[in-house]
Amino acid sequence: MNFDSFNLHPRVAAGVQSAGYTEPTPIQHQAIPHILAGKDVMGLAQTGTGKTAAFALPILHRLTEGARGKVRALIICPTRELAEQINDNFHELGQHTRTRTVTLYGGVSQRPQTNALRAGVEVAVACPGRLLDLINQREIDLAHVETLVLDEADQMFDMGFLPDIRRILKHVPQRRQTLMFSATMPDEIRTLAHDVLHHPVTVQIGEQAPVGTVAHALYPVPQHLKTALLLELLKHTDTESVLIFTRTKHRTERLARQLKKEGYAAASLQGNLSQNRRQAAMEGFREGKVQILVATDIAARGIDVSRISHVINYDMPSTAEAYTHRIGRTGRAAKTGDAFTLTTEEDAGMVRAIERVLAAPLERRRIEGFNYGAPAPERQPQANGQAQRNGSRRPTNPGARRQPAAAPTLSSAYGHGPGQNRRRPKAKPGGFRSLYEASNSSGSNRR
Questions:
Q1: For residue 444, which phi and psi values (nearest 5 degrees)?
Q2: Which residue of 96, 140, 207, 251 pairs with 246 in a disulfide if CB–CB is 3.0 to 4.6 A?
Q3: Which runs of consecutive H residues, i.e. helices, occur in 302-417?
Q4: How confident is the model at residue 206 (pLDDT cuts 50, 70, 90)?
Q5: Are 168 and 128 in contact (CB under 8 A)?
């Protein structure tokens, strides 16, 4: 099957050809005919399956006729990066049409966005917060919306956007086509789908589990040795582009700085960065100038780089669904990829949850020659702790606050630096060791 079978408008078909698309992906094959027929669609598919084109092509086809200069298609998504990615796909596929688009999100000046809306656009790709601002300021008219798309619905729920989405829905016509796409189907998304979709066709691509082109492995390691193990792992792994996930913005910045010091072309991507810096990091990663991108979960939504060879979870994700989203960034477009996760003894419960999703035990690996027994560096004593318990904020040693604990260095982590003779903390029974030893028995760590 090829794209000719959809009978798209010749200008849209020309965009497909110019973009180099040859055969539809499974979700495009299943969803496009229903969307062209005007039906509501609930699409369940992982990232990297081609779902953006699955709704962009029918929308472009529809917009070749009818009014110009009015917002007739509204796509709502959770992050700026994803909004830009969707907008780029519309530009690429609609390059031979006269369709005008605009992205609407916060963190940047509102003026270019309102100027574009006043000049007239047919497609608006928006994040909920900025869209609500523009609605309240009467800078956008949604009365002519014919197609509404809710993309990455589960992620919008995770980010707390569902109340905003329900407020936005009051401003779009009830008679419309609604398309919802989600990688997972928690109860809240099921309820939203029931409320906003009218007799929908459900299109599901594969099981709601990580894509089959990705190989998974765990690297059990004490918390204080994570960075040292990561560096050793990168040293012994043949990589192209690497995406590393951390839990916090601060850790993202710190780890990117450490990787740069070790000579890697690394950048960070997290919510505190300005839009210009976020865009520069993304473009550098896409173009290969940045080999390693360190990101938080939310910031990484919208990363669409087909040649990511490895996803590394520096920190364990908070849910099995988040694991699915993370590792879906590699193994895209029928290519293979690797997902490595650094695990500590506290992660045992989440490991079991992920193994249930995969329906198989995860392989545990060790790096030969790595000193897993290196002690953690001693922390500076809390000099003001007793004073605080006595109701006083004044530290017993005023200089203590000006002497922060030194970050662990690579040499001390291996036991080659000044910290090598420090007392090793006692191991907790059944903790880290049991997590590693489970690798030698099929799921023996499950209870």
A1: -70, -10
A2: 251
A3: 320-327, 348-358, 385-389, 410-413
A4: low
A5: yes
